[in-house]
């Protein structure tokens, strides 16, 4: 892994949020990181279909729609790359940015919300709750959802229809799938980690068992040529098809089954976590030191044994 890949993956997962001097004073470990020369972040826009595209920078993939009515953003990474994304969207959409949608509350998806400068931010009600609960010390740096929903939210925007849908807990307790229906593109947020060990936020309501169901339900709602945007992926491979959704569903199922079998056999958490590779998923990457197979199996163990997060 070269330095740039390291920076991208570390920042992507919110572990070393101040590497890019992105306005976060502390690391996730609570200590000041040594000063780093500010490297300009590497970013790019990628068109997908019918005005829908994605912006790849540092943090969860941003989705966007641009048409005659202006632009809509999905997620915001951190302030430094959000500013680049917002400038690019405004350039491409003379009518400006009308609204922002958040797939879930994590800082690498909402940390740049303020950069959009929009008065309308849509999110699932649990996303807003978790966003508030986890940012009590940085309220002035946040822009919180202004419109929330329980099951679905839908709005026409120009000649596109945007739908946000909640399928129950998965990666957090408040993940929404954003479907640009005519373009047939679904932004999965962090419900989809493509060939990478996922973060799983039990403290904010995540459930691996229901996450598997969510992916099955989403797949049934999609059609053969739906494009799925992943929040994160190995080598930034975040433009995905049904095959990647199915692969990740099978990964979660295999990890959970391993934990269930271990618990049934009376194994300890450490014993369940001690597994070098998950058979059939040997090519799965760790996007940072914390997100390993052992981490995922530990979360599965805690879920199976109903251990409080
Ligand atoms: Zn996340």
Task: Put the structure in a nutshell.
The protein has 309 residues and is α/β, with parallel strands linked by helices. The chain has helices at residues 3-12, 79-92, 107-110, 113-116, 125-133, 208-221, 242-264, 269-273, 293-304, and strands at residues 44-49, 52-56, 62-67, 70-74, 97-101, 121-124, 147-149, 152-157, 160-166, 176-180, 185-187, 193-194, 227-229, 232-233, 239-240.
Could you characterize the architecture of this molecule?
- Helix 6 runs antiparallel to helix 7 and helix 7 (242-264) crosses helix 9.
- The two termini are 32 Å apart.
- This protein is an alpha/beta fold and 309 residues long.
- It has a seven-stranded mixed sheet. A six-stranded mixed sheet has the order 8-9-10-11-13-15. A two-stranded parallel ribbon has the order 12-14.
- The protein has helices at 3-12, 79-92, 107-110, 113-116, 125-133, 208-221, 242-264, 269-273, 293-304; strands at 44-49, 52-56, 62-67, 70-74, 97-101, 121-124, 147-149, 152-157, 160-166, 176-180, 185-187, 193-194, 227-229, 232-233, 239-240.
- Mean pLDDT is 91; it is low at 6-12 and 14-30.
- It has one domain (3-304): Ribonuclease Z/Hydroxyacylglutathione hydrolase-like (Metallo-beta-lactamase, Chain A), CATH 3.60.15.10.
- The radius of gyration is 19 Å and the shape is globular.
- Strand 8 and strand 9 form a beta hairpin.
- The structure holds zinc ion.
- Residues 104, 106, 171, 190, 199 line the site of zinc ion (ZN).
């Amino acid at each position: 892994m070269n330095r740039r890949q390291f920076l991208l993956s570390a920042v992507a997962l919110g572990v070393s949020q101040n590497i890019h001097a992105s306005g976060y004073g502390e690391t996730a470990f609570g200590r000041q990181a040594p000063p780093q020369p500010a490297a300009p972040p590497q970013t790019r826009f990628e068109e997908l279909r019918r005005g829908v595209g994605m912006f790849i920078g540092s943090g969860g993939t941003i989705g966007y729609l641009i048409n005659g009515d202006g632009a809509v953003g999905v997620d915001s990474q951190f302030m430094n790359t959000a500013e680049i994304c917002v400038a690019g969207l405004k350039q491409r959409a003379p009518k400006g940015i009308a609204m922002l949608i958040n797939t879930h509350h994590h800082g690498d998806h909402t940390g740049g919300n303020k950069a959009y400068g929009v008065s309308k931010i849509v999110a699932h009600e649990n996303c807003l709750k978790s966003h508030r609960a986890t940012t009590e010390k940085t309220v002035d740096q946040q822009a919180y959802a202004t419109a929330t929903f329980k099951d679905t939210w839908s709005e026409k925007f120009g000649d596109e229809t945007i739908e946000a849908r909640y399928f129950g807990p998965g990666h957090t307790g408040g993940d929404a799938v954003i479907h640009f229906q005519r373009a047939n593109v679904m932004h999965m947020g962090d419900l989809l980690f493509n060939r990478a060990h996922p973060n799983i936020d039990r403290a904010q309501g995540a459930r691996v068992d229901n996450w598997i169901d969510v992916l099955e339900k989403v797949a049934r709602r999609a059609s053969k040529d739906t494009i799925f945007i992943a929040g994160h992926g190995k080598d930034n491979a975040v433009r995905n098809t049904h095959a990647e959704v199915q692969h990740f569903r099978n990964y979660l199922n295999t990890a959970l089954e391993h934990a269930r079998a271990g618990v049934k056999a009376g194994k300890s958490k450490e014993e369940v976590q001690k597994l070098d590779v998950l058979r059939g998923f040997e090519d799965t990457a760790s996007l940072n030191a914390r997100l390993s197979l052992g981490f995922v199996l530990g979360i599965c163990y805690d879920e199976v044994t109903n251990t409080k997060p």
